[in-house]
Design goal:
With 605 residues, the chain is of the alpha/beta class. Helix content is 45%, strand content 15%. It contains 18 helices and 18 strands. Strands 3-2-1-12-13 form a five-stranded parallel β-sheet, sandwiched between helices. A three-stranded antiparallel β-sheet has the order 4-8-9. Strands 6-5-7 form a three-stranded antiparallel β-sheet, with no helix packed on it. The radius of gyration is 26 Å and the shape is elongated.
């Protein structure tokens, strides 16, 4: 058994998340985690809402409320949405806990004490109209690297490179539209040049495994070619206080220094909560972070690669004391670097880039109010932005739901269970198998190895496509054997064998399908005579901050009782009742309705 850390990108709590977000961090990480648990690995899947930084501060000022109120509201919305999508987090928490603040400050002190946090002056942007400090994301201009005109003061979303506001060509304030003026301010910088050699060595090591996606490893190695110290503190009042600068409340730790440490702080909170409940110890998290044999997989969209393949590994190396300046690990011990950064490309919508501010958006909550969670999970898994940008269109969503989920998988389940319920009322005892029967059963049994390997190597499109190919084989088997024509007593033994074969095929296919479609797989399991707990589901649990007592919701669950990722024989004699449809066919009118809804939101901008 291997300890597997599934580290899922932290959704920002400035508003609800749209389907482009969960296509990158949400569904792929859940499919992977569910599979690994079924394979017998010890999985810890963690994340939470990222709640510091400028956008929340500005939103609070606009609404006349506190940043904490904005974070509280959106944290609950996001937790509920991810629960309804069926994402099986062991702990989904938040960055405004006392635990997180303490872990972040401990990491900072370790990096600083090892010599990798250095003080330097840097230009700080001031809005000439308001006189207020302008956070990086509220400055826009032309990217000096790729020429993109909408680059922000901290990053260019077009080329993915990290920037500083003064790097931009023709920068302007998003608040006033005027060019900012720059004044010097002292900040802590992460000494990336002193860590570059070890970073390069690590990237060479992971590249040699051949496991990283080519676009991710090539982009990551390019980042290290031109490293420079990066500011890890900011002039802002909303964030984690800088150790040693407690007398300067206008200076806080940079949100991206803070957020990536959430993977560690969430793991520590998970262990603390379990220990509080009498399960394990407060140090149980160490098995995923200090053990050389543990493996960690970080899931995100490609715009976050820089923070996970450069900044976060550099923070870990600095804390461990593994850079040019040496040093030694602190109280957390030697922390393991990522095994793999699993970054997806971008999902667009009807050919346009998602943009909440421009109303080009489909929020997760809105989709789940009108359609099934598994219909969305299916689309993301089989047509999402795994290794290249992908486009979500309502026409394609409806087509895949109707022609693949309903007409393919749903039809196989429904007619198999219907025939068994009508002709036998239970799973029949098979007679002698013919080659056509054994060929189908063997092909599906072989699918466990093929599909499992694809999921393990993050080829989820191919994995789900292979399951659907096997579904097609089973439907072809029905057409070739024609069990619905076997009505005489003499033909009943052959009918029993065919229907047993189909029940076994559906059972095994459902086992494979449950990592992709947990809600409907539980429904199928019930129709096959099971208890409907094939895919354990997450729950929203109301808790209190372990240190301050503040109440907040977390997403968690018990995923210890899972079926093995392997063929299991069905049991003749299991009662089978008349089924109901698993999936809902969508009327073509849905397409026009959704496009009209999108158009109306555009006009109301």
């Amino acid at each position: 058994m291997t300890h597997i850390l599934t580290a899922v990108a932290w959704p920002y709590a400035n508003g609800p998340r749209h389907i482009g977000h969960v296509a990158g961090f949400g569904v792929p990480s859940d499919v992977f985690s569910r599979y690994m648990r079924m394979r017998g690995e010890d999985v810890l899947m963690v994340s939470g809402t990222d709640e510091h930084g400028t956008p929340i501060l500005v939103a609070a000022e606009d609404e006349g409320v506190t940043p904490e109120q904005i974070a509280d509201r959106n944290n609950r919305i996001i937790v509920e949405d991810l629960a309804n999508l069926g994402l099986s987090y062991d702990l989904f928490t938040r960055t405004t806990t006392v635990n997180h603040e303490q872990v972040v400050q401990t990491l900072f002190r370790g990096c600083r004490d090892n010599g990798y946090m250095v003080q330097q002056d840097m230009p700080v942007a001031i809005d000439p109209k308001t006189g207020n400090t302008l956070p990086d994301r509220y400055i826009e201009g032309t990217c000096p690297i790729c020429g993109y005109e909408g680059a922000r003061g901290d990053q260019c979303d077009n080329c993915g490179n990290q920037l500083d506001p003064q790097d931009l060509i023709n920068p302007v304030s998003k608040v006033s539209g005027l060019p900012p003026r720059f004044e010097n301010s002292t900040h802590y910088f992460l000494d990336l040049p002193a860590l570059a050699q070890r970073l390069s060595q690590w990237l060479d090591e992971v590249e040699a495994t051949g496991e990283w996606r080519p676009n991710v490893i090539s982009f990551s190695k390019h980042l290290v070619e031109d490293v420079r110290p990066r500011a890890m503190t900011r002039d802002i009042s909303w964030g984690i206080p800088v150790p040693g600068w407690e007398d300067q409340p206008s200076k806080r730790l940079y949100v991206w220094f803070d957020a990536v440490i959430g993977y560690l702080s969430a793991s520590i909170e998970w262990a603390r909560r379990r220990a509080q409940a009498g399960i394990g110890t407060v140090d149980d998290w160490r098995a995923w972070w200090n053990d050389d044999d543990a493996r960690s997989y970080y899931f995100m969209g490609k715009d976050n690669i820089v923070f996970h393949s450069e900044i976060w590994p550099a923070e870990l190396l600095a804390y461990n004391g593994e850079g040019d300046k040496g040093g030694k690990p602190g109280e957390f011990g030697t922390l393991q670097l990522p095994t793999q950064v699993v970054a997806s490309e971008f999902l667009t919508m009807e050919g346009k880039k998602f943009s909440s501010s421009h109303h080009i958006v489909i929020y997760v909550r809105d989709v789940l109010e009108r359609y099934s969670a598994d219909a969305l999970r299916y689309f993301i898994s089989i047509a999402g932005p795994e290794t290249s940008d992908a486009d979500f269109t309502w026409a394609e969503f409806v087509r895949r739901n109707n022609s693949e989920l309903v007409a393919g998988w749903g039809n196989l389940v429904n007619r198999t269970v219907s025939m068994v319920a009508k002709r036998f009322g239970q799973i029949p005892e098979p007679g002698d198998f013919e080659p056509i029967d054994t060929e189908l059963l063997q092909a599906i049994q072989d699918g466990f190895s093929t599909v499992g390997s694809m999921i393990a190597h993050h080829h989820q499109h191919a994995a789900l496509s292979e399951i659907m190919r096997l579904v097609g084989e089973a439907n072809t088997y029905v057409s070739r054997t024609e069990p619905f024509k076997l009505k005489s007593d003499d033909e009943r033994p052959r009918l029993a064998t065919i229907l047993y074969t189909l029940m076994q095929a559906v059972f095994d296919l459902n086992t494979m399908m449950c990592v992709f479609l947990p809600h409907s797989s539980n429904d199928v399991d019930r129709q096959l005579g099971g208890d409907g707990t094939l895919a354990p589901m997450p729950e929203v649990r109301e808790v209190q901050d372990l240190d301050s007592g503040k109440p907040y919701p977390v997403l968690t669950g018990d995923y210890s009782n899972v079926r093995e990722w392997a063929h299991q024989d069905v049991t003749p004699g299991t009662p089978i009742a008349k089924p109901h449809p698993i999936f809902q066919k969508l009327d073509e009118s849905v397409i026009a309705e959704e496009l009209q809804r999108l158009s109306a939101s555009d006009e109301g901008e």
